[in-house]
Amino acid sequence: MSTAMTEVSMDQGTVKIIVKWSGKEYELTLGEQETVGELKKAIHKETGVRSDRQKLLNLKLKGKSPDDDCRLSHMKLKQGFKLMMMGSLEEDIAEATTTPTCLPEVVNDLDIEDEEVSVVNEDVYLAKIQKRVKEYKIKMLNEPRENKKLLVLDIDYTLFDHRSAAEQGVELMRPYLHEFLKSAYEDYDIVIWSATGMKWIEEKMKLLGVSTHPDYKIIFYLDSAAMISVFTTRYGVVDVKPLGVIWGKFEQFTSKNTIMFDDIRRNFIMNPKNGLRIRAFRQAHLNRENDKELLYLSRYLRDLAKNCDDFTKVDHRDWDRYRPNSL
Question: Which residues form the FCP1 homology domain (predicted)?
C-alpha cells in the first residue's frame, strides 16, 4: 500500500497540487472547473496508481466522498489542504500475491539496552517532557474511567502493515485487532500514539474501524508532536515517546499501571520498564493467516491487570512466559 499527501491551493481559476507519494513529490496544476475524476487521472499519470485503485481518504463534500464528476471548485478547499491517498501499483499487487522463495531478516530497531539508563534521568529530557505536558494539547475522545490501567499502542507494524500492497485497508489490519481491543478495554483505558501526524492517525483509525467500534473506546490520540528527541552516545539523536507526557497530564496513570506496545524498542527508551516490544506485523498478504500476536497478548494484559500492582516489576520482554504466580 502507498500513501500520498496532496497539498492543494486555489489561484486564479487553477488548482495547484503537490502529490507526495512513495517518498517523492509530484506537482500538478488543474483548472478549478475540472473534476475529481480528472484529478485521479492526473495522479495516475504521475504516480502510476490507477484511478480505481486510489482511495482519497479525506476529500469530502458534505461529509461524503465526492463523485468523480464533482468539480474541484465545489470542494471549497482551503489553502494548504492536505489530501491523503491510499492505493497500490499493479506490479506491487502482483508481487503481493506471489509467495517469495526467501525472506530476508528485517532489522528495524536499535540495540539500545546500554543506552536506557544513561538517558532516562537526564534533566534536559525531563525539561522537554515538562514542556510537552504544559504545551501539548490533547483532544479528548472519551473520558478516562476510574480504576483502569493504561494501554498505549503504536500503529504502524503494531496494528497495521502500512507498507504492503492491498486494495482495501482491512487487508492490512493485524489479525484479531478488534477482539484484542475489546478484551483490553475491560481493564485498560486505551491511547493511540504514532510517530506520524494527527491527520494520518485519524484516517487510519477510521479506515480500520477503530474510531467507531461499539465495543471499546479510545480516550485520545498522540502524534509526533508529543515525542521528544534524546541523544544517545552510540546512535546520536533519536525521537522517542516519553510516557511522562501522559503521566504529567493525568494523575491516575503512573509507571505502576501503564504499559506501551511498540514494534521499535527505542520509542520507549525513556520508560524501558513500561514498554513491550511487539513482533512487527509485516507482509500482511503472507502473515495475516498465521499471526496470533494480539490474541496471545490479550491474555497477557488480562493476567497483568488482575495480578500485578506494579508493571515496572515485570520483565515485559518475557511476556510470553509470564505466569501470575511468578511475581
Answer: 144-304
